[in-house]
Specification:
- This protein has 224 residues and is of the alpha/beta class.
- The protein has a single domain (5-222), classed as Aldolase class I (TIM Barrel, Alpha-Beta Barrel), CATH 3.20.20.70.
- Helices cover 46% and strands 17% of the residues.
- It has 10 helices and 8 strands.
- An 8-stranded parallel barrel has the order 1-2-3-4-5-6-7-8, surrounded by 6 helices.
- Helix 4 packs parallel to helix 6 (107-120) and helix 7 crosses helix 8 (168-178).
- The longest helix is centred in the first third of the chain and has 14 residues, at 23-36.
- The relative contact order is 0.14.
Length: 224
């Protein structure tokens, strides 16, 4: 499916968002991202500036998680977190939606929560994490429509801290909901090349994984 290692690497967001991730681990992740030419390295907010400096001169974009992992902080806090990440060099933001707000019958507040972060960080790539494993029947379509209206670039499946990660059915359902109006990032539990192939075949445009180097090594072995 991937004509070269560079094509595969260009689909991968290498992630290091564990709460205990050290600066030494960050430096290693930056080295891996630079070596393979991943699309982006996604980190926690306090590590953005260091990642930006380490990746200077490479094609790898730096991303930060916002409202992670539950999305339940106030909109103002999300905006401030996003703006600080942008000031520190983040080019992409992976923003967790507030599911409790949506389920409280306040779709307009839910939309404002997302849209205000997007509006206050113009020029960045915004990915809204909808935590597909937590959604009830009928919720995904409505949430996806709101994400599209917010102006976000991607609908993202999962934080990796939910009941499960992405599934092929999730990707197909999101694609059916958004059509060509939004890109899709599959994340959570994607650890091998076959999973990447399946997600991309289902319609994913970007893959979030902490196993980027291992997936690249598997791909290179398969080409021998």
């Amino acid at each position: 499916m991937f004509e070269s290692a560079a094509v595969l690497a260009g689909l991968i967001d290498h992630t290091l968002v564990r709460p205990d991730a050290s600066l030494e681990e960050l430096d290693a992740a930056c080295s891996d991202a630079r070596t393979h030419g991943f699309a982006a390295l996604i980190v926690n907010g306090w590590q953005v500036a260091r990642a930006k400096e380490a990746l200077k001169g490479s094609s790898v974009r730096v991303g930060a998680v916002i409202g992670f992992p539950h999305g339940t902080c106030t909109t103002t806090v999300k905006i401030m977190e996003a703006m600080e990440a942008m000031r520190n060099g983040a080019e992409e933001l992976d923003i967790v939606m507030n599911l409790g707000m949506f389920r409280s019958g306040k779709p307009e507040m839910f939309e404002i929560d997302i849209k205000n972060v997007v509006t206050m960080t113009k020029g960045l790539t915004h990915k809204i994490i909808i935590e597909t494993s937590a959604l009830r029947d009928g919720e995904l379509d409505d949430i996806c429509r709101i994400v599209v209206r917010s102006g976000a670039t991607f609908v993202k499946t999962s934080t990796g801290y939910g009941a499960r990660g992405a599934s092929v059915d999730d990707i197909r359902s999101i694609r059916a909901a958004v059509g060509t109006t939004c890109l899709i990032k599959a994340s959570g539990g994607i650890k091998d090349l076959s999973s990447v192939v399946a997600m991309v075949a289902a319609g994913a445009d970007r893959i979030g994984t902490s196993a980027g180097p291992a997936i690249m090594a598997e791909y290179l072995r398969s080409r021998q």
